[in-house]
Write a structure and sequence with these properties.
This protein has 340 residues and is α/β, with parallel strands linked by helices. The protein has one domain: Rossmann fold (3-Layer(aba) Sandwich). 43% of the residues lie in helices and 11% in strands. The chain has 11 helices and 8 strands. The strands form 2 sheets. Strands 2-1-3-4-8-7 form a 6-stranded parallel sheet, with helices on both faces. Strands 5-6 form a two-stranded antiparallel ribbon. A hairpin with a 2-residue loop joins strand 5 and strand 6. Helix 2 packs across helix 3. The longest helix has 26 residues.
Length: 340
């Protein structure tokens, strides 16, 4: 197929132009390279504690990052590096925070599981499973009350669907028609346990949607175009007063639950099958089939690696937080004194 025919095919596919598709590709690549660098830094003992990577799940974060409005809010789990970056937080700020350095988003005091960048609408990574779903509902209620048109988007794992907060938040969101989008990143495992072995329905999120009067929405979480389309529709619905959406994105984490997990519990062949469905490899091939030159994609990848290298250098050179900062930001007044 010649280039002209390929571009006609792209137009026939309809709704996503080349400029947006290149944004989606660039963002996926940046998320992948940055998290791979985080893995390398952990092995060098430059990141303490542990990390929870979302390698293989980049299409979801990228699609919503591009679809959301600048003043919308993101709420995510401890597996939140990609979502924070997707909202525009700097690689230096994220890698610096993971390394516990002053250049980090939280001055090096929060670490991997508490990434927050309010200026970019990234309203926190939550280490307690399910804790952020009611918080996202509260933010959406605020937007509804103030009439701002903002939407709260809340990402969570499949295991969260068996937590009480999931059901409480969904119920209130539906009753009050809140502008909130709940996105279950179903990567098949709740830490080490297959979600299918402890859940009565086939689809842990979408299978419960009808209980709250919501449409069951299931999307291929490794296809960034499909996630982007679903994101656009859900965001538009929320802004128009149509209430919440519950989306189940089927995906797969290519690494273990955390750096300490070798993931030996996965059946033979499962990882290899999902690696063949890698979202970035799939999208690169699609873009080439649609007429984008391979050199353009090569340049995007090279630029992403350069950005990661620069962010790594700055973060490594940044000092750890000073001891006198230990009591700063403990309470809302910026200090450590209890305010009754």
């Amino acid at each position: 197929m010649d280039t002209t025919a390929k571009r006609k095919k792209a137009g026939a596919a309809g709704d996503i132009g080349e400029e947006t598709r290149l944004r989606l590709y660039r963002l996926q690549v940046e998320l992948r390279y940055c998290e791979k660098r985080a893995y390398d830094l952990f092995l060098q003992n430059l990141i303490k504690g542990t990390t929870h990577l979302s390698l293989g799940q980049e299409a979801i974060a990228a699609a919503f990052g591009v679809a959301m409005r600048a003043d919308d809010w993101t709420f995510c789990t401890y597996r939140g590096h990609a979502h924070t970056l997707a909202r525009g937080a700097s690689m230096t700020g994220v890698l610096g925070e993971l390394m516990g350095r002053q250049c980090g988003l939280l001055g090096g005091k929060g670490g991997s599981m508490h990434l927050t960048s309010v200026e970019h609408g990234a309203m926190g990574s939550y280490a307690i499973v399910g804790a952020h779903l009611p918080v996202a509902a509260g933010a959406a209620w605020s937007a509804q009350y103030r009439g701002t048109g903002q939407v709260a988007v809340c990402f969570f794992g499949d295991g969260t669907t068996n937590i009480g907060a999931f059901h409480e938040a969904l119920n209130f969101a539906a009753v009050w028609k809140l502008p909130v989008v709940y996105v279950c990143e179903n990567n098949l495992y709740m830490e080490y346990t297959p979600i299918s072995s402890v859940t009565a329905v086939e689809y842990p999120a979408a299978g419960r949607a009808a209980a709250y009067g919501l449409e069951p929405i299931i999307v291929d979480g490794n296809d960034v175009d499909e996630v982007y389309r679903v994101a656009q529709a859900a965001l538009a619905r929320a802004r128009a007063g149509g209430g919440p959406s519950l989306i189940e994105a089927k995906t797969y984490r290519q690494s273990g639950h955390s750096r300490a997990d070798p993931a030996k519990y996965r059946p033979e062949g499962e990882l290899e099958a999902w690696l063949a469905r890698d979202p970035i490899a799939i999208y690169r091939k699609r873009l080439i089939d649609l007429g984008v030159a391979a050199r353009v994609l090569d340049e995007i990848e090279a630029e992403a690696l350069r950005k990661v290298d620069e962010a790594t250098a700055v973060a490594r050179a940044s000092p750890p937080p000073a001891v006198d900062k230990i009591e700063k930001n403990v309470w809302a007044n910026g200090g450590a004194a209890w305010r009754n």
